[in-house]
Amino acid sequence: MTSHDTAPARGDAAPARALLLWRAAEAVRMGWLEYRVVETPAGLLGATLPRGVLQILFFTTLAGVLAGPGHREYAFAGSLVLVLSGTNVNGVVAVPVLDKQYATFARVRTGVLSPTVTQIARALPYPVMGWVLLVVQAAIAAPFLGMTDFALHLLPWAWVYALIALTLSVLGLAGATMSVGKRADVVAPNVLSYLVMLCSGAIVPPGRVAWVDAIGQVLPGRHGLDAVRAGMAGRPWLGDLGLEVAAGLGFTVLAALSILVQARRASRLGHDDFE
Q: Average per-residue pLDDT in the chain?
């Protein structure tokens, strides 16, 4: 084949990439439509938003009573991670569960886009909306706690909470996709959510229980929160931020491998029963 013969193939590469990007964007749009069905405005405003506000109020007040007023700022910053754990680790379960309930995984795994890209793209609304809700919840809770000034000082670090929202979402996706075939797709993310609550150092400072610290080192949330606290105190924080990114990437790989195994197993057995 001459160089003249291969030129058209090289010329077709750009349109092919553009088409794949368009398909990925459509997968994100589909994820947004699914999110709007699962998380209705009435549910978000009537349940999810007030529940997060109450969690911030509860954990911050409890910390002030048990550990003294000086611990309230520590607990307020940490309670935001606990709220994200509830909305994101548990919420993103809907992506693989909907495929299971409506038997649509066959279409996902036989599409042009890989099943991994499709499911991750559909999961993107959860970290985005979880972070938006978190900002609103913190803004509502802070005045009730008399902590508006602290919340304003925390605001420049809101982007780190956006990163934590993303890493917690991939944690939930990994947990759900790894357990969806064992009828534990709801239980597993709940367990992971409680582990984040316990091991992230959100309320109780690290260094108290060795096994809790060990689990916290590998779960998302812990290092991102450490970065926020270090940055606000004027200490180096980039190392902690890098560890948070690494935790998120690790669980993204686990989720991708789980989806790949499901797709190959379904293709081999000829069904998508998730059994």
A: 86
Which residue is listed with tokens 């990994």? Answer: 174
Q: What angle do CA 258, 263, 266 make, to 5 degrees?
A: 120
Other C-beta atoms within 10 Å of 23: how many? 15
**pLDDT tens-digit profile of 165-189?**
999 999 999 888 887 766 666 677 7
- If one counts every other C-beta atom within 10 angstroms of the C-beta of residue 70, the result is 9
The identity of residue 225, as a single letter, is: L
Quick one: pLDDT band at residue 4, thresholds 50, 70, 90?
very low
Do the beta carbons of residue 60 and residue 72 sit within 8 Å? yes
C-alpha 69/C-alpha 89 separation (Å) is 30
Residue 181 makes CB contacts below 8 A (sequence gap 6+) with: 262, 274, 275
Q: DSSP string of 39-82? A: S-HHHIIIIIHHHHHHHHHHHHHHHHHHH-GGGHHHHHHHHHHH
Does residue 8 have a pLDDT over 50? no
Structure token pair of residue 146: 């008399």
Q: Is 172 exposed, middle or buried (0-12, 13-18, 19+ CB in 10 A)?
A: buried
Q: Which residue, chain included where needed, has tokens 């200490």? A: 235
69 versus 214: the higher-pLDDT residue is: 214
Q: 208: how many CB neighbours lie within 10 A of its CB?
A: 9
195's enclosing H/E stretch is: helix 187-199
Q: Round to whole Å and give the CA distance between 88 and 73.
A: 23
The stretch 120-125 carries a mean pLDDT of 90
222 close to 207: Cβ distance less than 8 angstroms: no
Of 103, 162, 160, 175, nearest to 131 by C-alpha is: 162
pLDDT at 271: 66
